[in-house]
Design brief:
6-stranded mixed β-sheet, His_Pase_superF_clade-1, Phosphohistidine phosphatase SixA, SixA
Length: about 160
């Protein structure tokens, strides 16, 4: 299974709660560029996404919308209908073991390509858990880690850092 784990784009701090923080204009642009990178990667390998898991927080939902725009901008034409699952367990304090178990379930059900958009510290913890602490990623806003998960241990194959 290929898994792309992405932290949301740059977010503002002015909101009445953490879940209501919005992306900055720069954060939207970063997420769109990451969508373009991912779209080129998917197009080149001729693969489709099987599932997109996204936190219910506003900044991750906005990140997903910007990623979709980036995907579409490079000609990635897959429909997103029935692909996106908003999941409460991938908020900042999500349980990494539960997420790994769900990814394992998706893999058992035949999923081969999953995009997950979430927050620190969960994105960092997931990479460490999936690679059995063999890899770590500095998850600045909009950073995306690409993992190949065959068997019990995932291998970090690429880290994409958004460019200005």
């Amino acid at each position: 299974m290929n898994i792309w784990i992405m932290r949301h784009g740059e977010a503002s701090f002015s909101a009445s709660s953490d879940s209501e923080r919005t992306l900055t204009p720069f954060g939207i642009e970063m997420a769109k560029k990451q969508g373009q990178w991912l779209g080129n990667r998917l197009n080149q390998a001729k693969i489709q996404l099987d599932k997109i898991l996204v936190s219910p927080y506003l900044r991750t939902q906005q990140t997903l919308e910007a990623v979709k725009l980036g995907l579409q901008a490079v000609g990635f034409s897959q429909s997103f209908t029935n692909l996106v699952e908003t999941w409460e367990e991938i908020t900042p304090d999500g349980n990494q073991s539960l997420v790994v178990d769900y990814l394992d379930f998706l893999r058992d059900e035949g999923a081969k390509n999953v995009l997950l958009i979430s927050h620190l510290p969960l994105v960092f913890d997931l990479v460490c858990a999936l690679t059995h602490d063999q890899s770590q990623v500095h998850f600045y806003p909009a950073v995306m880690a690409e993992l190949c998960w065959q068997g019990k241990i995932a291998r970090l194959t690429h880290t994409e850092i958004p460019r200005n």
